[in-house]
Amino acid sequence: MAAISNYAHFQEIFSGTGGESFPLDYYVFEDDLSGSQQGVQEMPEVIQFFSDVFGTYPFSDEKYGMTQLGYYGAIENQTNTITNNMLPSWFDVSVHELGHMWFGDMITCADWHHGWLNEGFATYSEALWEEHKNGWAAYQSNMAANQFWNSGTLYLENAQDTFNIFQSIIYQKGAYALHMLRGVVGDEAFFETLLNYAQNPDYMYKNATTEDLQETFENVSGLNLDYFFEQWIYDEYYPFYHYNYAQTSGNVLYASIYQAQEEIYGYRPVFKMPVNLKFTFLNGGDTTVTVWNDEQSQQFSFEFEDEVTEMELDPEKWILRKEVFNPNIPVGIENNTDDHSIEVYPNPYLEKIYIKVPPVYNGENILLSLYSANGTLIVEEPIKEGVLNTAGLPSGSHYYVIKISGNEITSGKLIKMGK
Question: Smallest Cα–Cα separation from 184: which of 88, 271, 63?
């Protein structure tokens, strides 16, 4: 691609901390000269930052340049980006296209199925620059703008249609996938992986695939990340967490997480992810605990020395998700057994639940309530014959509560097999 005009040209020499030196050439319309000079004044600092994170600018034996086009967006031609303009308002675009010198020009996706390796990395480079320049809050704000709620897989199934490739998913969700990987493996392993990936001679000035990136992350972190890439790269959508918590008088806290996306939207029922739970205490302190959530309905217990006043799920948004506090979700029931003499069996069960009540409760009003995993009451019946027929109920996890004369005596979790 060529851009031709009676350009005004200005130049500076970049001198990197690694000893590299090369020209930065800018070609702009005369009317935009002053604004363009302001708009690129931080480019040497960005080049140095990216060189520190990804490895030395890959074309330091040549140059880096930008040429004004005056319309359209921008295209990351190797060593010379063509862009609409270089004014300060377009600085984020300038950062994005510079990121492509590493991811897109030095390492090119093997085919357009893996296009997110170009665009997701360049978009995430913008967020890293924001964090470097303006701090963590700026990084979070940048990532919030990249949340992607639509359908489609990050691995593009249709890579034959050129006009179908450069869609928002490979930019936004591509960047957010890297953000989530950072949350999964931790900062040290994440940045080591970025450097190893960008400086791997098997990929430098060559091609790479999603599998190559996964292998690099796994080699550095020591983790098996099949679950992550299967969910976030090759499948679509996101989890919708419903959560609840309760604390006993002994300061044992029970937290329940229910993934409701299948019930609400028809998405995959479970996203397996480490989930951060932040607890705020009455004394003003707080702590964050990471749990491994791999079931649609799951409960966790913690013992704290102080009363918990609030629980937040994934407060820093390390997961592309939606969440809501749902006080109806059963919580703490596995351990809420004031009287173990009442038996509820079998578990798992097929069509009938049997309840064995000791003679001491003869003549009392006994009520059994059965709840779905998301806390919806589905059955509430008095127990007379010691049996409850559940033939019409769907299979899956259910929770029961037995009350005698209005007082809760025991509760627990049951699993129904079959249909």
Answer: 271
